[in-house]
Amino acid sequence: MSSRYFRTPPLSLAAQASGLRHQYPNGTTVAGRDDIGWRGELSPDAFGRTYDIEMHYRRDDKPDVWVRAPDLHAFTAGRRLPHVYDQKEQRLCLYVPGCGFWRPDRSFSQTILPWTCYWLRLFEMWLVTDTWHERGGHPEPRPRRSLPADNLRF
Predict the structure, then answer these.
(1) 13 CB contacts (<8 Å, ≥6 apart)?
(2) Would you give per-residue pLDDT tens digits along the chain (154 residues)?
(3) Considering the entire predicted model, what is its pTM?
(4) Which domains, from first to last, does the chain contain?
(5) Which of 36, 60, 69, 148 has the greatest count of CB atoms below 10 A from its CB?
């Protein structure tokens, strides 16, 4: 039989929230019935800037991640931000959708937030070199998603 018949079930939102609270305790994790959010400060390394990051996931969808502060455009000298879905909202492109890099059975605390730190490191290198030191194309804008439910506001 093909392995497609034996898919790993998605992690529950409670398990996702537990992982976020354990691995990223300085952030705020908010979980609802069908949504989960995390907001906190991340830095790509000991010498990097600190960024205010927000992650939101709605069940049966893909996670979204934004840099809420600082405004990344302040550092770009007029260049367009690389690898973002939305220039204004600074919604990050962390992986190639549909390639299996992220799936609902994977923990946000071990994929999405570490990938965000990696994106921030690549961004800081891009500021200096004007080269994105990773594979992948610049994404086309995705349709705007609705904002998190009121109970998930930070």
Answers:
(1) 31, 32, 33, 34, 35, 36, 59
(2) 455 666 789 999 999 999 999 999 999 999 999 999 999 999 999 999 999 999 999 998 999 999 999 999 999 999 999 999 999 999 999 998 878 888 999 999 999 999 999 999 999 999 999 999 998 765 555 555 555 545 566 6
(3) 0.86
(4) 7-134 (3.10.110)
(5) 36
